Structure prediction request, 239 residues.
Amino acid sequence: MKNLYRLLDLTKIIINEIIDYGASYFRVKKFKVDIVENLALKNANKNNPQAILDTIDYYAWNEAFLMNIGDEKGLLLEKAIREKNPANCLELGVYLGYSSIRILRNLHENSKLTSIEASNKYFEISQKIVSHSGLSNRWKPMKGKSKDVIPSLKEKYDFVFLDHWKDEYLSDLKTIQRQGLLNDKAVIFADNVVLFNMEDYLSYVRNSSTFESKFISTMREYSKTQPDGIEISIFNKDD
Ligand SMILES: C[S@@+](CC[C@H](N)C(=O)[O-])C[C@H]1O[C@@H](n2cnc3c(N)ncnc32)[C@H](O)[C@@H]1O
Prediction:
């Protein structure tokens, strides 16, 4: 029964996204992401990351669903960044740049974040929003699909945030590992592992001696009732 409710809720989100896209495509109304971009740039003062996050959160709680990590899980992401204090981070799935801002504002002076986004539209919006936040000097946004961009990466990472399409988490993590892009004890922070029932991914990180993995139960972004969770896995290079 629980699974049925989860499926119905997920279906509702997907149908709403399709309706929103269709309505905007046929110019019946504006794309919600264009509205959010406008609000973030107008309502929040320049160089005020918190005001941008608040504007986006307010819209997502009160107007329409947005697929950012959200305020509850966003704080867990920030805590994980502060605990790891990474020199080099990688993010798969940028959307409006919301999580990029949450990561960037917790990085120390010499740390940096590379973020990969496949959609041209979201890529452009995120550039404007992150730039408005004043945090773009340590940010390297890359446009393209993760499977096409990851092979070009040469640096090693201490923190990887997985938040793109869910059926790509596992194959991308395996590619990242195969390419030797993870430093010892790198943290892999994966969002939405309950919402999307990510058994394959979870079984991989939980059953391999290469990772020590822990689960944190949460609610889905911008929901007080729908269960979700994040999986935080630590990479052990020598295993
Ligand atoms: C859930 S949203 C990311 C939300 C963002 N991390 C945040 O919390 O603010 C997922 C994003 O991943 C992008 N995406 C999906 N598959 C991708 C892929 N294979 N490579 C790069 N980006 C991808 C989508 O276009 C979308 O913008």
